[in-house]
Amino acid sequence: MSTPRFDEATQKELQQFLDREQANMRMQSTIHTFTEMCWDKCITGSSFGRFSSKEEQCLSSCVERFLDTSLFIVKRIRNLPRE
């Protein structure tokens, strides 16, 4: 079976699709890691439908720190000089 050949425009479109999918995969992995980290840090007991107020506050703070840090990093990367 031969490998299909695509014109340059199709190759570019496929590469852009793959790049977007890889970025989505990295984001999902980051979210998973972040969720696990905050859960392990904040959830101290077994929750039956509700978190304690201390757990809620911890989760909220953890999420806010993660978002603030992510925004900071994105801004720094955007401001780096291009090589």
UniProtKB/TrEMBL annotation:
Keyword Cell cycle carried by entry: no
Signal peptide: none
Location in the cell: Mitochondrion inner membrane
GO biological process: protein transport
Tim10-like domain: residues covered: 16-78
Nucleotide-binding listed as a keyword: no
Keywords per UniProt: Chaperone, Disulfide bond, Membrane, Mitochondrion, Mitochondrion inner membrane, Protein transport, Translocation, Transport
InterPro entries hit by this protein: Tim10-like, Tim10-like_dom_sf
Coiled-coil ranges (or none): none
GO CC annotations on file: mitochondrial inner membrane
Topology class, membrane: Peripheral membrane protein
General function of this protein: Mitochondrial intermembrane chaperone that participates in the import and insertion of some multi-pass transmembrane proteins into the mitochondrial inner membrane. Also required for the transfer of beta-barrel precursors from the TOM complex to the sorting and assembly machinery (SAM complex) of the outer membrane. Acts as a chaperone-like protein that protects the hydrophobic precursors from aggregation and guide them through the mitochondrial intermembrane space.
Quaternary structure note: Heterohexamer.
Domain notes: The twin CX3C motif contains 4 conserved Cys residues that form 2 disulfide bonds in the mitochondrial intermembrane space.
Family stated for the protein in its record: Belongs to the small Tim family.
Protein name listed in UniProt: Mitochondrial import inner membrane translocase subunit
